[in-house]
Amino acid sequence: MFKRAVSRAFAVNWGWYFGSFSSSLATLTVVYKYLTENWLWVAGLTLGMFLFTLSIRVVIEYGRELEEALTKVQGQQEQIDQLKKDKKRILEQYEHYGESIIILKDSFSSINRLRRLGLNADSDLAPVMALCCNELKKLFEKRFPSFSYSVCIKVLGKDVDLTKVTAHAEVLTLCRDEESYKKRSTQAVIVHNIFENTCFDYIFHRLGDTAKSHYLNNDIPADLNYMNTSAKVWGELPDTDDIQERRKLWPLPYRSEIVVPITPIIPDEEGTPKQFLGFMCVDCNAENGFHKKYDAQLLRGVADGLFDLVRHHYKEPQTA
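Above: the chain sequence. Below: its structure as tokens.
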């Protein structure tokens, strides 16, 4: 660092005194004219002035080197601090998926316990399904604490012919998380079916394609073709193409949702149609409440685990 400062100081000083023939001549002339008529003294004085100003320039350049080095160190430290912050942010951001492992472990442990004990009555199954709904709600809200989520399990009506299900099949709410149960339970007699609900209809016509048989909409008010029979409870959907106006007038308590079918991920026998009993739904009161890549897969695993519990509501499994 000091050598570099000396080198820079010498270069600047030399350019100032002897950068060109004219500057060299001017320097020697000034010294000769005003100090002495002896050229030997002129050379000596010139050298002395050069060394004196050089020493001053070295101090200045060394100070600059120190300042640049300090700035560089501070910049590196800022980068290190930023990397630490980024690492912490990433860990916190994806901690949600680590928590999902714990939740799935607890939920599936309860499910497996029922299987081992052979407990199939609704009174035995209901607490386990409620546990899954409550824990999933906590999981999503931990990721986005300012958002509110609702989780529910919907099944086909018991009067539905499970061997020949159509899009007119009725859909019933079997279980909700505790909070949304208090807010959304209604005594109104409204028939919910597959074809009048965009999410259900979309999945129903894609049950044979595992990669596509889920529905995710992160901005429902912006979907001009969206249909939902819950509008009969909360109010009709805005009849306008103006997206901003639709957002202002949106009556449903959710603005994004993800739905997966309650069906085994792998069929019992290769080549046979998958059994399908209903839907697992999660909705959010804000736009962009779901991760497009991971959340659907998470819910698929939960729906697969709940399939056997839901199947006990039916005498025969449905194929689609």
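Strands lie at 149-156, 171-176, 215-217, 256-262, 278-284.
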